[in-house]
Structure formats: structure tokens, C-alpha cells
Write a structure and sequence with these properties.
The protein is mainly α and 78 residues long. It has three helices and no strands.
Length: 78
């Protein structure tokens, strides 16, 4: 079972995409900007209660599925 009660840092998200695509991202690391937040946290309690929503896809699988869709979608447009 996937643990949904955790945050994922942006750098972890980027590294997961890099690993999935086997490419390095071009990053321009900057200091925190006005309006940036250190942490965000989604609350899906109402979705679970109202719609019986329970996510089943972890980060790595979700990114893999998205990358495959993205590559297929844009390769068809060429």
C-alpha cells in the first residue's frame, strides 16, 4: 500500500523524472523567491469521504505513466 501521508520535495520529483527519462534536467537553482513556500500538503480527506477516492499509484509509477503518455502524444504530432 502506498503511503499518501508524506510530502515529496521538488528535487526528488525532478530526480524521478530524470531517472525515468534517462536525461539530466537543466536546472537553474535560485534562492527562495517572494511568495515561494517551503512545504505544501494536499488534503484529500473530503475526496476520500465524498467520492471514496483512494490513490493507488506511487510517484515513480505515476511519472513513468505520464512520461510514456507524453512521449507517445508528442511523437504522434511529428
Amino acid at each position: 500500500m502506498v503511503n499518501w501521508n508524506k510530502t515529496v520535495s521538488l528535487i526528488t520529483f525532478i530526480k524521478t523524472i530524470e531517472k525515468t527519462m534517462n536525461k539530466k534536467a537543466l536546472k537553474n537553482m535560485m534562492p527562495m523567491q517572494m511568495g515561494d513556500v517551503l512545504t505544501t500538503w494536499a488534503n484529500i480527506e473530503e475526496m476520500k469521504k465524498d467520492y471514496k477516492y483512494l490513490p493507488k499509484t506511487d510517484l515513480e509509477i505515476g511519472i513513468l505513466k505520464f512520461v510514456k503518455w507524453f512521449e507517445n502524444y508528442y511523437n504522434e504530432k511529428k
